[in-house]
Description:
Bound molecules: pyridoxal-5'-phosphate
Largest sheet: 7 strands, mixed
CATH superfamily of the largest domain: Type I PLP-dependent aspartate aminotransferase-like (Major domain)
CATH architecture of the largest domain: 3-Layer(aba) Sandwich
Amino acid sequence: MPPPVPSLxxxxxxxxxxxxxxxHADFARQRGVHVHHLNIGQPDIPTPRAVLDAYRTxxxxxxxxxVSEGSLGYRKALADYYNGLGAAAGGAPIAPSQxxxxxxxxxxxxxxxxxxxxxxxxxxxxxPFYPNYKxxxxxxxxxxxxxxxxxxxxxxxxxxxxxxxxxxxxRAVLLSTPGNPTGAMLSAQxxxxxxxxxVERGLYFMCDEVYRDFVxxxxxxxxxxxxxxxxxxxxxxxxxxxxxxxxxxGARVGCMVTRNPQIYAACLKFAQARLSPPVVDQLAAWxxxxxPETELRSAIDEYRRRRDVLVQGLQRIPxxxxxxxxxxxxxxxxxxxANAEEFCIFMLREFDLGGETVMLAPGDGFYETPGAGSxxxxxxxxxxxxxxxxxxxxxxxxLNAFAQRKAxx
Length: 409
Ligand SMILES: Cc1ncc(COP(=O)(O)O)c(C=O)c1O
């Protein structure tokens, strides 16, 4: 017998555009070039002390399984947190029994898609979108149908385009707000309107709010939440995570919240099959809820400065088009190149400015529509402002060198 081969599902799984240039970055390092990573949303802000202390002070003699849906104490604390943010405006206050603790927001997304869609069903996702949405859907045999949004419109979602895209296999709408990769944010009214459309058309509305706190303009402390919109009890499914809010990506704790008992029951069965979310990390995530508001605020102020440095720097480069994003810590920029992936690889394999280069994520990997985003890159502003200023200078010099190279070939 010939050796077994991986499943088609495995072979055809989409590669992460955020990580797929990693071998080229290794090559840059091998040739002695320092790489500034603007390709990945790994925050560098220190994790709150209370979170780290929770790991250090764990004293139990046995590290046992926890409860599948997450510890009751943590879920009670989370319910207080969501209700404190105004979730009760959307209906009855959130109860601990409507919260399920997951392994990062990632597992909540997988549970959400699995609980709402069957194989060959379709989930509508505004594009450009967080590429793992496609990865999770693919794993479950679910198709992603993109709803185009455009840089020229600030990547705002058009309700008409959503309405037009609904087909016989459509089961859900999935989006992130504030969004990765565009930083676009839906207003409370837009969430309510989209929710109403979902109710009318019998669709679930999965709202990924992991960047809730990262809002920069207009004085709001957090982005509007789907949980606070009335009339959406049957359809709303909220995804959350401690990764970005508390700069604790390695904690691997997130959660899902839904007022729909059937969807909750389905997710609970998935959760029971994977036994429990991480126990010590939950303690750390619980401790994180007590992070002083001032600490969170100073992190957001720092991200605002970073956004402004990167956006204004990129806007000064001839031919680069970019708008200031409302939230999260990413932006999509149009470059004066035909193929942004080629440029990104050039930056890693052939270019340096004084021994430094920049790693960016090619934009096309954030789109489902073939050919879309081919001149765009996504950048994360998760580095100190001085490093971002330097990165802008490197990108500008790299674009010049790339243009010269093209002119010669
Ligand atoms: C939009 C969005 N949702 C979910 C996640 C998943 O985060 P985690 O699994 O670390 O909670 C990320 C991570 O970058 C993200 O950008």
